Amino acid sequence: MPQLNIMMYLSFLLLGGLFCGRMVKHIKLPNVTGYLLAGLLMGPCVLKIIPGEIIDSFDLISQMALAFIAFTIGLSFKASYFKRVGIAPVVIAVFEALAAVFFVQAVLILCGFEPAFSIVLGAIAAATAPAATIMVIKQYRAKGPLTDTLLSVVAIDDAVALVAFGFAITIAKGMGDTGQTNLLLSLAQPFLEVILALATGSVLGLLMILPLKHFKKQGNRLVILIAFVFLNSALASLFGVSELLTCMMAGAAFCNVSPESDRMADLADQITPPLFLMFFVVSGAGLDLTILPSIGVIGLIYVILRVAGKIAGAYLGARIMKAPSQVARYLGPTLIPQAGVAIGLTIVAQSVVPEYAGTIRAVVLCGTLIYELTGPVITKWALTKAGEIRNGA
Fold first, then answer.
1. Residue 141 — left, alpha, or beta (φ > 0 → left; ψ -120 to 50 → alpha)?
2. DSSP label at 289?
3. Cα(173)–Cα(190) distance, integer angstroms
4. What is the pTM of this model?
5. Which H or E run contains 391?
6. For the chain, where are the alpha helices, taking DSSP H only?
7. Which of 105, 167, 195, 391 would you call most buried, defined as having the most Cβ atoms within 10 angstroms of its Cβ?
8. 387: alpha, beta or left? (left if phi > 0; alpha if psi -120 to 50)
9. pLDDT of 81-119, one tens digit each?
10. Which of 39-53, 215-229, 286-300 has the highest mean pLDDT?
């Protein structure tokens, strides 16, 4: 197929995603599943309508979408909510993330795989992708204790995953230590990165209040919203910390000091649908079907044990915190999706266990393919079983 103008490919993303999103509704599947399938069909693995090099050029779309997703999650973190639910979401997030890590690590080591490799790959299992989950919640207007807990857990999960991975790579490096590594600094680094991300987001979230005092028209406020979300993402990238955490904290800081937070959330909802649609279509186009045969036993252990860990950890955490029964029973299955953060961690893993870099990337990409295609469907099922999506929605 001849090289087309980039705007043509953008139109393919929008129209293809819109069409497939409508088609899957006829079989009661979430829109996001249709968007991912649209990308998979148009991408290099199937119809080759969108070449691989074009997909790589769409990284900015993914960065913008994830920044808005994280910011809007943060807008739901009002102090009044946490006063009502307490620390339950934090405890549940820690349990579900670490259970997935330990399940994968333990079984890999018991099966005889090299410990450093098992520790690093298992640590990536903690990461959960909030984007697909949030899209399902928004599409079906899910409401209830499970939805409230889920929104909090998927946001906190990113922090837990980063800290867990930081400790894992420190341990893995220590197994082949040359005596040049400062162990204390290595252990402290993931915590320092999380603190810097939260501090950056807090400052920008508070600063966002100032221009809103002087610009009252909706168009001007839209400009301010976009500018500050992008600024959060850019500074996080500049500082080398989590963009998701930074943007989430900006939203959380803003919503707790400004009465305009609900209006800004409504404004974001009006402009983000096409951005989110393109993000998922691009994500689908980036899925590589050819890696499926290459994952073997390691891939099966990772894909299955990560899910088992998420379900068991979420159940145990919810029971300990005496959360409602529907939270304990159905939260775990909603935490299956995994994408951007996990793929990013594979890049770091390459420098820790370079001899296994190809295997780790293949396993995580294959897991992404499976989780992103099945996760939204399972999330819808879980929310429906919990009674938080109306029958027929």
1. left
2. G
3. 15
4. 0.71
5. none
6. 6-25, 31-42, 52-56, 59-74, 79-85, 88-110, 115-124, 130-140, 145-175, 183-207, 209-214, 218-239, 243-257, 261-271, 273-285, 296-320, 325-330, 340-352, 357-385
7. 105
8. left
9. 777 767 888 898 899 999 999 999 999 999 888 888 888
10. 215-229
